[in-house]
Structure formats: structure tokens, C-alpha cells
Specification:
Blueprint (H helix, E strand, L loop, with lengths): L46 E2 L38 H13 L5 H16 L2 H27 L29 H19 L7 H17 L10 H10 L2 H19 L20 E6 L3 E6 L6 E2 L3 E4 L17 H7 L4 E6 L11 H19 L5 E6 L1 H16 L4 E7 L17 H14 L1 E2 L1 H11 L1 H14 L8 H7 L4 E2 H13 L9 E2 L2 E2 L9 E6 L7 H5 L9 E6 L17 E7 L8 H7 L2 E3 L3 H9 L5 E2 L13 E2 L9
Parallel strand pairs: 5-6, 5-7, 7-8, 8-13, 13-14
Antiparallel strand pairs: 1-15, 2-3, 2-18, 3-6, 4-17, 9-10, 11-12, 14-15, 15-16
Helix pairs in contact: 1-11, 2-5, 3-4, 4-5, 7-13, 11-15, 12-13
């Protein structure tokens, strides 16, 4: 802990409360799960938020929770790192990781052999692919014939439409000869490879996904839109500007290379300085230790809700995504509506923090912040909010607190946070034993996962949007994409300690210990089914990091009341969705405590879409649970004096 910050008092558990009674035989169904009829609410129907029962501070009686389906595996063994690696092996593996951007060539080879071997043993599948290729050739020839005889200025009916999310060939120039044949041939090839890499009997699902992803990346590399001679939009721009677009593009490429080598932020980021342009909501740092700073924001209203809000952002990102510019700051939005807001700002770890683990993030992060808030606002419940990894950490903490009878939380809000990692989306392509082992070898040498590695992984996941479209736009068209606050924040990346990241990948992604009841806190496993808090859970429709159906699995892990929001946008833009922003919508439905499980696609069909931002709905939800309006609390407390102005020191660390 910083010398300037006094040591917080040790965390004391709240008085123990009555725990639920064990399941009896009548309440237990097959495979050890509780029978649906034993739930507290027999009707179980999901209800719109407008018809949900009015909120009170009394806890809803907890329904019976399912025990684990694997009782023999439900112990919580201490985290066991992989066996010590021979120093020579470590150096070799780390070198391979550096050369391949931490993508395991063995994992790719295994996936390719699995797919190719099973395809070789499937003559029926090969015949289907041959038939598809012949049929596609006929379609393309028929299309070419129609083009040849079509009157000038008319367009033939194209033989294949691009996927709805593929905007590469939307421009009118792509529908003129010969570029129409080029892009139609490319889309047909993409369709064939999609069929070839899916549905091969015997291939493991993970290997199928890896092969399909690799094929898609190779195809995207050779898209006709990526090259000057085969991109009609670039050719027109070059002709109209006399080649100045290529000159500008070359200047942009040189500037970007110089910034990359010099470790400077991307062009335009200098217009969004932390503490001057973004992260400007007034407040004070009231806690600093070796891992976090806790910011208490100054009140903006004459009175405030009695119960404060604690925000736990992900440590993979700088916290100020929730305090961007004044017009789209979620922190400012809450403060202006009378909430006392605290927010954790994580330290950007270096080699000195290499040994920090998940327990440190829990104790030095969440619980240290909660202790400070209890001192600043004594005797009040705290409404905790977690974003992405911060939400996963919050769910772990809430389960541990309910297990131990600690009742200091009043509610839990999760933003794009996964608690079940069995279907984590395309990010799982980079997470298997071979990948993690290679990554660990590199982290053993550096002490952390670099910011560039994380940014590169996310770019690959959305290569069309984040990589190729940028290359075409800035280097071929010569047009700089205007920088905005969210883009500048995205470039302000962070590192992750080696030990913590290894634990996170192994315990959560590889083993799924949290949803299976094996994740240990204080030496004992926690169960999400112990959580008794009302939950507000937000997922985003086009999330590549935490797919919404994966986030939705919270419904069968936590039996308490859940208000689930599905909003338009992606992992970040869907959360930074202030009122008044155009083309925003969301769906909201509340499942009462003990209500029956509704599958995600049924939920989507039954829940009406609402125009606008989900922020007001969440603010109202918080207000209904945050007590009476009182005079604002003082900034800091006796043992937690104000140390610095917000945004503090840690957010500036590079």
C-alpha cells in the first residue's frame, strides 16, 4: 500500500444470518437438480419490468438452489500452476510465442489434422462439397451470361448475396463489370469454405471452430477489396484525385509506423487527454494500495440516495470507459441523478506485480474498496456494478459474501460479464491447453501479458471491421478515420499480471470452475446459487467478447430476481449508450425470484424492443432500491482521507 494511504481495517463479516435448509428428497429431480415444482414461485412466468413487484429492502425468500451435478468434483483445490518447465523449454516456447503472436502452431496443426483426417474418411461429405462446387460454378457462369446479354446500364440478378454484416461490397462500383464477377466469385468461395469446414462428422467442436476461423481469415486476406487493382472504389478515388489518395495513404502509413515504434498513441488520440477531455467528472481518490485506487465522486445534487454505488471495471481496460466525455459518461449520469458513486481504478501492472493473483484482485480490489465505502458511508448497503471481468469478479465476491453471511451488498449489476464459460464465443479459439501453455511461457519471461497481445487478439476476431477496413480506408483511400473518445480509450490498453492471467484462463475458461461450484474463496468453494441479491444484467447484441447467450446463462445459475437487458451495439459501444444517441434500442424483462428458466431465443421472441438508451431503466431500478434521499456524505473518512483529485495516478500509467 502507498505510504500516503493508511492501512484499511481488516474486513469483518456481517453477523451470520439463517441459511437455507438442505434439499429434501421430494425437491430433488434427476441428476441431483431440484425439481422445478419445488421452486418458490410456481408460476415461473417471466414478466416485463413494468409488471415486476415493487422493490423493497427486505430480502426475497431464497428458492431452493440446485446442487452441483458433479459432487465428486465439487471440491475447491488451491490453484495448481502447470508443472515446472525445463528452462530450455521455457525459452523455446517463449520464442515461439513471440514469433507467432502467442498463437500455438501445434493447436492449429491438431485442428487441421482433425478436420482433414475426418474429411478424408467422409466420402459422402466430399461428394456434397463437389456437388456444391459444381452448382456454384453453374451459378457464376449463368450470371456471367446474363451480364453479357444485359442492356447497357442494367444489372443482372447476382448469384449470391453477402452476409448482412458484410459491408465490403455495398458500394455501387462493385456491381459494374468486371468487379461484379470478382466479388461474386469471392463470396461463392467463402460460401464453399464455410460448408467445407462445418459439419464434418467426428471433428471436435473446438477444432471445427479453429479451422473455420483460420479459413475465414485467409479468405479475408485475399478479398478483392484489399488491393488497389481490384477495388473499384479505390480506383475511382485514385482517378479523381490524380493519385493524391495514395500519397496521403503513404504518409499515414509512415506516421503510424513511427508512432508504433515510438510507443505513441494513434493519430488523434492527443485530443482526448485523460483528466482534461475524458475522465473529468469531479472526485477524489480516497484509497490507494498496490493494486487499486478508489475514486469517490463529488455530489452534483443537494441530496442523494442513502445507499451508494460501487463500480468494478475490468482490469483489462482503463476504468474511464465509464467516465468518457461529459456527454456520454455513465458515472456523471448517475451522479447527476443523485447517486453517490465510487469507482475502482486498477493499476497497470508491470514486472513488480507479476505474482498478483485472482485472490489479490478480490481482496486488494473489491473488498478493500468495499471496506473504504463502509467507512465513508457507514451502515448503508452498497449497490455493486461490475463490467466484463470486473463483473465476473463481482459475482465471485457476491457468492462468497452470501456464503459467509456478509450482507453489505444491496444489489448486483453486471455489464457484459460471463459467469459460465462453456460457450465464451470466438475468444475461446485462442484458449486451449496448448495456447495457454505457450502464453504462460512468454509471461514467465515478461511477468505480464502485454497490451499489444490483447489488442491484437481482438483485432483478429473482427478483422474486417478493425483491420482490413482501416487499411483500405486510411492507406488506399487516404482518408483518416476521425478519432473519438471511445477509440482513444480503446488505444489506452493495459497489461495483466502473469499469475492472475494464468489463473483466470485455467480456472474460468478451461475448467469453468465458477459455474461448476469449484472456484475457491478463502479456501472454500463458492456457488453462484447462494446469491440472494436482486440482479440487473446487461448484455449486448453483437458482443464478440461476451456473447449475449453466454451472459444469459446467469438465469440458471442464480435463482434470485434477474432484470435482463439486451441492448444494441457491441461489448463497449453497447454499454456507452447515453440517452439521445441515435439508432439505439434495448429489450428488458424481469424474471422473478424462483421463476422458471426461459431459453434465450424464446426470451428474445417474447421481449419487445424499446427505442433509446437502457441507462434510464437502470437508474430507475437502482433508485427503487437505494433508500431515501439524504444529505451527501463527506468525501473520504478518518482512515480514508482524500489523496488526489480524480482521475488519480494509476490511470495515467502506460
Amino acid at each position: 500500500m502507498s505510504p500516503s494511504a493508511p492501512k484499511p481495517p481488516s474486513r469483518q463479516a456481517a453477523p451470520a444470518r439463517t441459511r437455507r435448509q438442505p434439499l429434501n428428497e421430494a425437491a430433488t429431480g434427476t441428476a441431483g437438480k431440484p425439481a422445478r415444482g419445488a421452486r418458490a414461485n410456481a408460476s415461473g412466468a417471466s414478466t416485463p419490468a413494468s409488471s415486476a413487484p415493487s422493490a423493497t429492502h427486505a430480502q426475497t425468500p431464497k428458492p431452493l438452489a440446485r446442487p452441483t451435478a458433479h459432487p465428486a468434483r465439487s471440491f475447491a483445490a488451491p490453484f495448481a500452476p502447470p508443472p515446472p518447465r525445463n528452462p530450455l523449454d521455457r525459452r523455446v516456447h517463449a520464442a515461439i510465442a513471440r514469433a507467432t503472436a502467442s498463437v500455438s502452431p501445434i493447436a492449429l496443426l491438431l485442428a487441421a489434422v482433425d478436420w482433414a483426417g475426418h474429411l478424408a474418411l467422409s466420402p459422402g461429405k466430399r461428394m456434397e462439397l463437389a456437388d456444391l462446387g459444381i452448382e456454384q460454378t453453374r451459378r457464376l457462369l449463368r450470371y456471367a451470361q446474363q451480364l453479357a446479354v444485359a442492356p447497357a446500364g442494367s444489372a443482372a440478378h447476382e448469384c449470391i448475396e453477402p452476409p448482412a454484416q458484410d459491408r465490403r461490397f455495398k458500394a455501387p462500383e462493385w456491381h459494374a463489370w468486371p468487379f461484379n464477377l470478382m466479388h461474386q466469385s469471392f463470396l461463392l468461395g467463402q460460401e464453399w469454405w464455410d460448408a467445407a469446414t462445418h459439419g464434418v462428422a467426428g471433428v471436435s467442436r473446438h477444432h471445427e471452430q479453429v479451422v473455420a476461423f483460420a479459413a475465414r481469415q485467409l479468405l479475408d486476406l485475399f478479398s478483392p477489396g484489399n488491393f488497389l487493382p481490384t477495388n473499384p472504389v479505390v480506383l475511382r478515388q485514385t482517378q479523381e484525385s490524380g493519385g493524391l489518395n495514395l500519397v496521403r495513404g503513404a504518409i499515414h502509413a509512415v506516421e503510424d509506423f513511427e508512432r508504433l515504434v515510438g510507443g505513441a498513441p494513434p493519430a488523434g488520440a492527443e485530443d482526448f487527454v485523460v483528466g482534461r477531455d475524458v475522465a473529468v467528472t469531479p472526485g477524489k481518490v480516497v484509497l490507494r494500495n498496490r493494486l487499486v485506487e478508489l475514486i469517490q465522486y463529488a455530489p452534483a445534487t443537494a441530496d442523494v440516495y442513502a445507499e451508494p454505488v460501487l463500480i468494478v471495471p475490468a482490469w483489462i481496460m482503463k476504468y474511464y470507459i465509464l467516465d468518457l466525455s461529459p456527454h456520454n459518461s455513465l458515472v456523471r449520469y448517475l451522479v447527476e441523478r443523485g447517486h453517490t458513486v465510487f469507482c475502482i481504478s486498477w493499476k497497470n501492472p508491470g514486472t513488480d506485480e507479476r505474482a498478483l493473483d485472482m485472490d489479490d484482485y478480490l481482496q486488494l480490489g473489491f473488498f478493500a474498496a468495499l471496506d473504504a465505502i463502509n467507512a465513508v458511508v457507514p451502515g448503508q448497503k452498497v449497490h455493486a456494478t461490475g463490467y466484463c471481468l470486473g463483473g465476473t469478479l463481482l459475482a465471485i465476491a457476491a457468492a462468497a459474501m452470501d456464503r459467509d453471511g456478509d450482507t453489505r451488498l444491496g444489489s448486483m449489476t453486471l455489464f457484459t460479464a460471463q459467469t459460465d464459460f462453456t460457450e465464451p464465443g470466438e475468444l475461446a479459439l485462442f484458449i486451449d491447453e496448448s495456447e495457454v501453455s505457450l502464453l504462460e511461457a512468454q509471461m514467465e519471461e515478461t511477468g505480464f501479458l502485454t497490451a499489444g497481445q490483447m489488442a491484437g487478439a481482438f483485432q483478429i476476431l473482427r478483422s474486417n471491421d478493425l483491420l482490413w477496413s482501416r487499411i483500405v480506408g486510411e492507406y488506399l483511400m487516404g482518408e483518416r478515420t476521425p478519432m473519438n473518445d471511445l477509440m482513444a480509450w480503446n488505444a489506452d490498453a493495459t497489461r495483466m499480471p502473469a499469475r492472475m492471467h494464468s489463473q483466470y484462463l485455467r480456472r474460468l475458461f478451461l475448467n469453468d470452475d465458477l459455474s461448476e461450484g469449484r472456484y475457491p474463496v478463502g479456501g472454500k468453494p463458492v456457488a453462484l446459487s447462494d446469491i440472494e441479491l436482486p440482479v440487473f444484467c446487461v448484455a449486448t447484441l453483437t458482443d464478440h467478447v461476451a456473447p449475449w447467450r453466454s451472459v444469459y446463462k446467469l438465469h440458471y445459475l442464480v435463482p434470485t430476481e434477474i432484470s435482463f437487458v439486451l441492448t444494441s451495439g457491441g461489448h463497449n459501444a453497447g454499454i456507452v449508450s447515453e440517452p439521445g444517441r441515435p439508432r439505439r434500442s434495448f429489450r428488458l424483462r424481469t424474471r422473478p425470484a424462483g421463476g422458471n428458466y426461459v431459453p434465450p431465443d424464446d426470451w428474445l421472441e417474447r421481449t419487445p424492443e424499446q427505442e433509446g438508451s437502457w441507462w434510464p431503466a437502470w437508474s430507475d431500478w437502482l433508485a427503487a432500491r437505494s433508500g431515501a434521499r439524504v444529505a451527501p456524505p463527506a468525501i473520504g473518512a478518518v482512515n480514508y482521507p482524500a489523496l488526489d483529485d480524480a482521475p488519480g495516478r494509476y490511470v495515467h500509467e502506460k
